[in-house]
Amino acid sequence: MSEATAEVSYLEHGHSLKSWLLTTDHKRIAILYFLSITLFFFVGGAAAALIRIDLLTPEADLMSNEGYNRAFTLHGVIMVWFFLIPSIPNTFGNFLVPLMIGARDLAFPRLNLLSWYIYMVGGLFTIAVLVLGGVDTGWTFYTPLSSMFANGNVILAATAIFVVGFSSILTGLNFIVTVHRLRCPGMTWGRLPLFVWSIYATSLILVLATPVLSITLVLIAAERLFGIGVFNPALGGDPLLYQHLFWFYSHPAVYIMILPALGVISELVATAARKPVFGYRFVAGSSIAIAILGFLVWGHHMFVAGQSMYASAVFSFLSLAVAVPSGIKVYNWTATLYKGHIALDPPFLFAMSFIGLFVVGGMTGLILAMLAVDVHVHDTYFVVAHFHYIMVGGTVSAYFGALHYWWPKMMGRMLPLVWGRLSAIFIFLGFNLTFFPQFILGYLGMPRRYHVYPAEFQTLHVLSSAGASVLGLAYLLPFTYLLYSLRHGGKAPPNPWGATGLEWTVPSPPPQHNFHELPTVDGPPYQYPVEVDGEREAAHG
Amino acid sequence: MRTIAPLLTVWAALLALLGLTVGASLVLTGTPSLIASLAIAGLKAALVVWVFMQLRREGGLMRVMALGAVFWLLILLGYLVLDYATR
Ligand SMILES: [Cu+2]
């Protein structure tokens, strides 16, 4: 390959639709994922908007009971499986893992493309569910409701999730093999960027947990279609077995959503502080610890479901233990920032809002893990607020932080920093206004999944809905100025933030095969400060 | 032929074990039936893993990985039993 062709960026290498739809370039596949999950983010967001409008008044005046059930089910299914789970791994993981470890692509480029097509097939099934009238079981598909009584498109929705699961498994497999086999010379495990560690831990969960969900969905279909008794007591089944199997996947799935976010924050914090990450080994190890512990706590979803008290006590203790590796991360980020030369760039503001919201989400998780307290707040808005603090306040903030941080690398264009800072602040404020009132609502006894409620709850619900409209607009804002930057943004230098890491050593956007010559690593990661010859100042003006 | 022969043998063995499962379910009842069918299923899984999934040709690391998968299954089943046994 000549010097000239090597320098053609991955965006310039072919402009036809075919060159995108049949690409095996991990960077282009990342863009395909980015476009498709953004679409689903707004579909799921539209369902959330309907829910929040309906909840403005104590009466049911926007939707029927049935319609409301379908709205929150669709919101959950789309946001969990079609946005949150693929969000960071399939976009930024896809784009960055090969660049960060000094490889030219993932281990199985064609499998990578296949996994996007599988995702799209699952997505089409979901759209079909939506068009055909939805499904009303909640995203959890609890039996016997889902297998015996629900009259929506249960089988179709289960098929959508079954299909998209294979996309998860293939992506996880691809990342595991890539990290094991394609690290460049000198890139030892102890030198891997923390984002790669978190993606690796996430991939272990994707491969080990997702098959259990797939089998569980098949069992629901078997019971619903053929009357084979698995979960229905009348047929000799056990409804609690469903909850065991479902949460054996779905609790680890929470860590599929949050672990990549934790990895993003480690990168953003180190760059913002211009200091090596404090306690690198502990931050890396805590990702693995969270992945493993995540498999031992699923019973905390079943404290009031008739599960044995002995089992509950063990699950409660192990759930509390998750606070240890999570705490390690938060304390180590704080120690990294201590005495750092902090730059108030948009990625850093997103990272700060992540840390604050993640701590609130995590601490309320501990409250929920206590056996006695859980009886009071189980299935209330307290739970809803808790997991939105983790998944939306946490993961979505990190996702937007990553988007702002790596946008110049991915697109080769700088973004307007003022607008970036503003949207970080608006997202933080809108988020808290939406979800903090829900903690109070839940503690006062407002059950989740109800749209008719006592009049005294209305003030808090109105506050929450007002926050949701701020949040909705704040989420739209980045898409406007990011699109604007594609045409009008200044050209991005290779390393606009003055960061360490191999992805910043190549041009922005990276050439088609990433590295003209495979790099060699000869030192530990996060060797700050970085000399960038005033590049940062020049780029930002 | 040398690579096909063991596969065919194992396939035949699996079918024989299937016959044994059916037979045992007709003869035995209750706990002994459960133990027998689980034991036969375990044997079948072991044959598949060892021969079809090529674990007999792999090094120590791969075998440890496979054991890890079994361990993961035991986590799921172990806690399920913990709940069922003490409910
Ligand atoms: Cu959980």
Q: Count the helices of chain A. How many?
A: 18
N-C termini distance of chain A: 36 Å
Major sheet of chain B? none
Mean pLDDT of chain B: 89
How is the main sheet of chain A built? none
Order of helices and strands of chain B: HHH
Number of domains of chain B: 2
Query: CATH H level of chain A: which superfamily?
Result: Cytochrome c oxidase-like, subunit I domain
- Could you tell me the strand content of chain A as a percent range? under 5%
**How would you classify the helix and strand content of chain B by structural class?**
mainly alpha
Q: Give the uncertain stretches of chain A in residue-range form.
A: 1-6
Strand content of chain B: under 5%
Return the string of H and E elements of chain A.
HHHHHHHHHHHHHHHHHH
Question: How many independent structural domains of chain A?
Answer: 1
E-strand count of chain B: 0
What would the average pLDDT of chain A be, to the nearest integer? 93
Report the radius of gyration of chain A as a whole number of Å: 23 Å
Number of separate helices of chain B:
3
Taken from the alpha-carbon principal axes, the silhouette of chain A is globular
What is the helix fraction of residues of chain B, given as a range? over 70%
Keywords (chain A): Cell membrane, Copper, Electron transport, Heme, Iron, Membrane, Metal-binding, Respiratory chain, Translocase, Transmembrane, Transmembrane helix, Transport
Membrane topology (chain A): Multi-pass membrane protein
GO molecular function (chain A): cytochrome-c oxidase activity; heme binding; metal ion binding
Protein name (chain A): Cytochrome c oxidase subunit 1
